[in-house]
Design brief:
Number of domains: 3
Number of strands: 18
Radius of gyration: 20 Å
Helix content: 25-40%
Bound molecules: adenosine monophosphate
CATH topology of the largest domain: D-amino Acid Aminotransferase, Chain A, domain 1
CATH class of the largest domain: Alpha Beta
Number of helices: 13
CATH architecture of the largest domain: 2-Layer Sandwich
Distance between the termini: 46 Å
Largest sheet: 9 strands, antiparallel
Structural class: alpha+beta
Length: 375
């Protein structure tokens, strides 16, 4: 079967990596000629709405996306010609942070206090109600901490307004979370649903750096997170994998946002789960039975941001699996990841301890913090 993917980044690359052994072939559409998924399929270099893109995708039996900001018009044009999962409606639901928060509320998914902001008086009014600290975010196109500013005191108001005031905005209460976590749900067209174990996530400068799964001591939160993720997938009539990003505070969960696609917080599933999020997304999209989402043991995923570290030292670490996306190095860019899984009968904590000395200072300190925190 031929599967088309809108977007040719690392998510498309890992989807193709999971789909090729299943006998799937991939057509990947991306405006950039060096899109890294091109190494694993036929790359069509075109803008989303160009007829070359639409025609190439219309020739596939199934079409999916590797990012959520695909223009709705492009997706609708493709949907008229072939089967697209997730639907244009599901993608649109995550494209506007304000509509997304309102949808969460309507589904009884708890969220931090929030308010729409489209003028300076509205911002002052919202701050009056929500108070400091708060986070000002663009409603659209923000990701990896881009398009947002934390307002700790009134001093932060002016610079934040200068940076973001040209956009439609949302103000959210800053959540003093105990930790962040994410639940990935896969749903088939027939409504079969499975959830992966909760990932405990660590962000730095708004970018995901570490994911530990199954999240330590999280049995109660797992059940709560599953209920929220399932309600969302059911509401959207969703087909494929989606991830709901959550803040945990005093045993409660608050939703931050959801991603209608495979997600960085579940990359550990490649080696760490019975069937990975990438394979399960494709199984759902192709109308095949879903696979087992259970963990094989505990896993830790580390993102490589900006540049790939030298593999020689790290690959000598027991239980380490290496992923180089083949992307140009650039500050803040996700260029690869590694997943540590239990090996040689050793518990993950011991292997994490061994790994620390081979990491750069920043990754080592984030990992040490996580280990202390979850001990
Ligand atoms: P986002 O782009 O909304 O996924 O935000 C990126 C990261 O910024 C989150 O994973 C959190 O670490 C932090 N963040 C975003 N919104 C909030 C909030 N309302 N309260 C506390 N931290 C936040």
């Amino acid at each position: 079967m031929k599967v088309g993917i809108l977007g040719g980044g690392q998510l498309a690359r890992m989807l193709a990596g999971a789909g090729i052994p299943l006998g799937l072939e991939f057509t990947i559409v991306d405006p950039k000629p060096d899109a890294c998924a091109g190494a694993l399929g036929q790359l069509v270099t075109a803008d989303w709405e160009e007829s070359a893109a639409i025609e190439a995708l219309a020739g596939c039996e199934r079409v999916t996306c590797d990012f959520e900001n695909v223009p709705a018009a492009a997706l609708e044009a493709v949907s008229r010609r072939t089967t697209v999962h997730p639907s244009a409606r599901a993608l649109a639901a995550g494209q506007d942070r304000l509509a997304e928060k309102r949808m969460f509320e309507s589904l009884d998914i708890p969220v931090p206090p929030f308010a729409a902001v489209s003028s300076r008086p509205e911002l002052l009014e919202a701050l009056e109600r929500i108070g400091y600290p708060a986070v000002l975010k663009t409603r659209r196109m923000g990701y990896d901490g881009k398009g947002q500013a934390v307002l700790k005191t009134v001093e932060d108001l002016e610079p934040a307004w200068q940076a973001l005031g040209d956009h439609e905005l949302i103000l959210e209460g800053f959540v003093p979370f105990d930790f962040e976590c994410a639940i990935t749900v896969v749903r088939s067209a027939a409504g079969d649903m499975r959830c992966y174990p909760l990932s405990r996530t660590v962000h730095h400068d708004g970018i995901l750096r570490l994911a530990l799964a199954p999240a330590p001591a999280a049995e109660v939160l797992q059940a709560k997170a599953e209920r929220l993720g399932r309600a969302l997938a059911e509401h959207l009539g969703y087909v494929g994998c989606l991830t709901l990003e959550l803040f945990a505070r005093d045993g409660r969960l608050l939703a931050n946002e959801f991603a209608p696609r495979v997600h960085n917080s579940a990359h550990w599933t490649i080696e760490g789960a019975q069937v990975s999020q990438f394979e399960n997304h494709l199984r759902a999209v192709c109308d095949w039975p879903l696979g087992d989402t259970a963990a094989r043991g505990r896993s830790l995923m580390i993102n490589w941001i900006g540049h790939m570290p030298r593999p020689e030292k790290l690959l000598a670490c027991r239980g380490l699996h290496w992923h180089d996306y083949g992307k140009q190095a650039r500050p803040g860019r996700k260029v690869g990841h590694a997943t540590l899984t239990e090996a040689d009968g050793q518990p993950l904590d011991k292997l994490m301890g061994e790994l620390v000395s081979s990491l750069d200072d920043q990754s080592a300190s984030l990992l040490t913090g996580l280990m202390n925190d979850s001990a």
